[in-house]
Predict the structure of CASP-like protein.
Amino acid sequence: MESQRQVSVFPKKTSRFVILGLRVLTTILLVVPLAILVSNVLSGNRDKKYHFYDFVPYRYMAASIVIGIAYSIFQTGVAVVRLRRENHGNILLDFFGDKVISTLLATGSVAGFVMTAQLQKQWGEAVSDYYHKYFKRSYAADGLVFLAFVCTFILSVLSSYALPKKF
């Protein structure tokens, strides 16, 4: 009988560089929307200003971004150490951590998209360039968080390939 072996798509060293690149890209894709979210302010009636923390879905998205940044920076450091030492490290932490973070980023992105659409429906009646600029920036932040989710999803798939090798 032929033994069942998991064949990697990349050579060992290349896959570690791909993982490191995806982790760095994820960090960048999370820092930019956080900056957009914090700086995007909408002026309402009677000189009232609305910030992201005035809306619960945006707060959830911001929290998921901050948690994602922390995890991504941690895992980037771990990936660099693994490249230098040429070891696999804690594969279960990678596997479960990537699953949890990708789910968190997916739900954060969806919360942002839903909140932006709701605000656009509510305040979109006043067709002004100011509102359109706010909505464009909000959708850009939501989309970048979604792209970060895609990167973490790819990382979770790559980390799942390492499990049969270890266990």
Q: What stands out?
A: The two ends are 21 Å apart (CA to CA). Residues 28 and 148 are 8 Å apart (CA to CA). Helices lie at 12-39, 56-85, 91-123, 129-166. Residues 129-166 form the longest helix (38 residues).
